[in-house]
Amino acid sequence: MLKKAFQNKLFIGGEWVDGIAGATIPVLNPYDNSELCEIAEGRAEDIDRAVEAAKAAAPVWGRMNASDRGRLILKLADRIEECTEELIELEARDTGHPVRDARKLDVPRTAACFRYFGGMADKVEGFLPPVYPGMLNYVQREPIGVVGQIVPWNFPLMFTSWKMAPALAAGNAIVIKPSELTPLSTLRIAELMHEVGIPAGVVNVVPGYGHIAGQRLAEHPDVGKIAFTGSTATGRRVVEASAGNLKKVQLELGGKGPNIVFEDAVIPAAIGGSAFGIFHNQGQACIAGSRILLHEKIADEFLEKFAGFAKSIRLGDPLDPATEMGPLTSKMHQERVLEFSKIAVDQGGEVITGGKAPEAEALSKGCFVEPTIVKAKPGDRVAREEVFGPFATVMTFSDDDEALALANDTAYGLGSGLWTRNLPRAHKFARDIHAGMVWINCYKVVHPGSPFGGFGESGYGREMGFEVMREYTQPKSVWVNYDAQIPPHYER
Ligand code: TXE
Q1: Ligand 1 center–CA 332 separation, angstroms
Q2: Rounded to whole angstroms, how far apart are CA atoms 480 and 2?
Q3: Ligand 1 centre and the CA of 152: distance in Å?
């Protein structure tokens, strides 16, 4: 059922081409670890070819009438919607996302992102600062040229749109490296872009390993900007690699999101929202609400009901519409997440539920982890490190000061949330929490119009909203001495 076209090929200069080394990477289905297909492995020389193609296309795309650029991106959004069924299945098989999530979230959000930025293409306005008499100064935002993008495996389809849509709207040409684990939806999107008429070379997709293809993209002297989503450790490597030509860097890294439930919370809402916060996508989300902080007055009630909710989540084949939680995306990652349950217990933590792979025979070949809830202390590793799985670390507090101190006791600062009916308290926490995003009586809500990104070791720069258009453009200040007289500072 997988499309032949993108098996064993790279997408460079508007064509499917062979990788220079002729090497391949197997793509596995995490539901049973069977091989879905092989893809070509892009190496450093392939990245160089892709950058060349992007360099040739960038001036044409960047100088195109912005409304025409926008129209092509809008056409792509429509085309993605037409391909909904195919993309749902592709994403489910490649990543393990349950089809019910891919239908509700991944595919519509991908189309919505392209649509939003298609509309943005002709609205990137400059401005005129008032300067000296007789002089005009105008500031326009120009595309950067060639941008490199590195996406991870947790939301490959959606993150492809978050990266590509604003970069294209701003007039840049792209070389994108999807994760070696989940390249298929990015390759398919490139094909759809070609179909709707986005010119050859504007988008180039080179799947490959991070330390080879990713590294070359991050260090390439002709790439003006690199946008990276992944781990904080790899983010640091990308920054180092970028130093050669001082390219712009945008980083969306890890998180350890505090999710605070106060004593006056609407408990059923807090339970549903917290479950979405940590269990959706098997917890493989940088914005996951992975530290649940409970007021001691409601901690027992919340935990009992939350554990009941966790146990009731239906694990199964991602292609089954009844499945609520699929496998993690790789065997290696499953083992890593399971290890954290042992680490928690070794440090005196208590596993309330989960902490292991499910026993059902039908799931035994897949990368599954049961929804896990662990009670821990603030200094424990599971309270500090990103687990990136269906793994909630729970701690309690007795007053607002303690809740805030716990919430901010992290080097990260990406997502955060709180559940309360006390309006002044909600706003005070929104002000004081050290995080790029705060959700009040909700969790993990995103929209292409609202900036997404973090503080501290969660990275810098923003995706989405108008903020991201600043990331993909550079301001140019133009001075005009419009009456052609000698400017004042040359007068003698
Ligand atoms: O990430 P990597 P990994 C976190 C999460 C997870 C951990 C490890 O905690 O458990 O990271 O996952 C490419 N130069 N997140 O090892 O290595 C790589 O090919 C350039 C959070 O998979 O960061 C892939 O495309 N690129 C997260 C991408 O980086 C390199 C999403 C992510 O891989 C590279 C994923 C290099 N030297 C993991 N090395 C989030 N923020 O959502 C690797 N890559």
Answers
A1: 13
A2: 57
A3: 6
